[in-house]
Amino acid sequence: MADLSFATQPHVAIPDLPTAVRSGRTLLALDLGTTTGWALHGLDGLITSGTVSFRPGRFAGGGMRYLRFTNWLGELDRLSGPIASIWFEEVRRHAATDAAHVYGGLMATLTAWAELRGVPYEGVPVGTIKRHATGKGNADKAAMIAAARARGFSPADDNEADAIAILIWALETKGGLQ
Description:
Structural class: alpha/beta
Number of helices: 7
InterPro entries: RNaseH-like_sf (IPR012337), RNaseH_sf (IPR036397)
Organism: Cereibacter ovatus
CATH topology: Nucleotidyltransferase, domain 5
GO molecular function: nucleic acid binding
Number of domains: 1
Protein name: Holliday junction resolvasome RuvABC endonuclease subunit
Helix content: 40-55%
């Protein structure tokens, strides 16, 4: 279901974690889409990341991707959680209508899931993530992958690299407070 990769040296990837993070909170970062990138800072301080596909099957109804996403979040919360907070890439413009519909559905599902459980969540603008990761607010996919690799990660694609960048941004800025 989901591809998984580990930072080879988690303490090298993010050397000085904020005290609030070290206290044992599970933090989740998501790059929402048909192929959703995710990065998780676990209770043990280890950062894991990967991608999961919510592409509908041939005989699946239109709502199945969102039900699968809900189930995936629940499983992640059960196995790695409880999830203390969630950050996701806040996209304001899509090149294609279908991508906009999928993103909107996943974001609605995510926010409803988080509201039901009292989990705080926040969207982070694309430019903010790219600027923090690469120094350039309009960095391309290759630059985002290179930035994640420079931090010791091995992202499978740009979706995973974006999720890693969101998590690193959240950790290093304390969720945008610094």
